[in-house]
Amino acid sequence: MRLSTKLRHALWALPVVVTFACSDGPTVPAIVLSDAEIEDAFGALMSVGGLGMDSELRSEVEPSMGSASITQSMSETTPCPAGGSVRLSGSISSNASGTSSTIDLRQRHLVCAVEGESGRLWIFNGDPNIRLKMTVLLDELGEDFTMTGSFTGAVLIESEGNSGRCAFNLTMSLGISDVSVSGTVCGREFNESVSGF
What we know:
The protein is an alpha+beta fold and 197 residues long. The chain has three helices and nine strands; from the N terminus they run H-H-H-E-E-E-E-E-E-E-E-E.
């Protein structure tokens, strides 16, 4: 399996690992959801605006061996599927040898309406945003990699008359065949790891 394929698998696994349950936030009460609702809301949240690592962004994350050192800045606002918008801004940098990349992205939801897999409509507003910071290290042969970083910020969630805030403060580590995530999600401790993919 090529390294780029393995990296894609690790990035696709990340949203699966990070499921959450919300508790009180600093200014807006927490949204109270069942586990199934939480998974549906998080899947909808990660499906828009780039932090779910869609194929176009994944191709920019992968370091290119032998390329010049580059920094790519981005700032774009895209419509959400059922109304509103999401703004993605930040940068992706890579060293000259292609063995190290840094990702620093912020996502702000603006009355962003997205239908979850269940068919339920979720509306997200940044409070103020979600931030993904990652460092990607690739060996010189391009056969192994590690990614470490954080997923922080908060969103306001509204759905079917229920509303509230959910904040994230997670650290992540991804390898060629494992993912681990730990920290707090809406004031609760979260620790999860997956290996063997």
